[in-house]
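Bit of a strange request maybe. I'm writing a small parser for structure token strings and I need a real example to test against, not something I typed by hand. Could someone generate the tokens for this chain?
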Amino acid sequence: MASSRAQRLVLTLAAVSASAIFLFACEKSSSSKGSVNVDKNSYLRGEEIVATVAGFTKEMEQNNAFLAIYPANAGHDAKADQTYLHVADDSQIMLSTPNQHGSYEVRFYRKSPASADALVGKAPFTVDGDVEVSLALDKATYARGEEIVATLGGVTERMQKDSAFVGLYRVGGGSYGNHNVHTDDSNIEFSTPPETGAYELRLYRKSRESDDTLAASVPFTVDGEVKVTLALDKKIYTRDDEIVAKLTGITRRMKKDGAFLAIYEAQAEHGDNAIAVFQPVAGDSEAEIDAPHRSGSYEIRLYRKDFPKNDATLAATVPFTVKHTPRRR
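Reply from user aminoacidic:
Good idea to test on real output. This should exercise your parser:
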């Protein structure tokens, strides 16, 4: 009987040992080592970070493994500068440089949320300067109706991916439009704002406007306006007449902005419906428009842009009259 008990004890100890070995193997497997490396130790704002992931497993995919950029030595519960959620295999992942200079690290977590237990590896780096870019204008002062030509240089592929853009702003005021920029851009054209004053063009490295993403700016002023003339062949028409409007000074920019001629009733508001509309061509030209069918007082207006219609975009106006012509019996 003693021999039988000894055999059972040996079997029990063997089973416990096997379980311990299995548990140890599982624990080692679940914390399998992976790694993340970056292609450089130091970057400029506007460059691209190339992170290489190794040791990715199916378990990591199931647990939503991810990469994130954190300030150096930040806690796992700190806010990440940016997060890349689509890690799927051993691969190279392209990341944007942080917006501020400083010390950072790319972290590879095997599961979400971030924690010390989930951390697989990290790669430190610094952001120490800025990619050199240039932004210049063809002149410092423009007249309303002219075209603003901005010359660009140094736009990187990373900036293009990050939706870098050039925006036109009133000094101390709001935006008057923007253009996304690309690596092969050399010139970008803007319409002059409708009001005179001080303005600036700004180049942002990313789609978000901030002091940290601002790469370059250049000031300019809008003073005066392009000289245009609008004249009619006569002052009084009948409803069967054709009105001949003579135009000079229409610029290429005004044409791009949808400059147009329109007939309104005298003293009509800018927002009222026009009786007739004609799109003029650039340069000196003539427009032939049928006279209104009703007798009364009218005016023909030239707007520099198709929108908005207001005093600032109104370039010229000429009044005229349509008289009733009695029918012959």
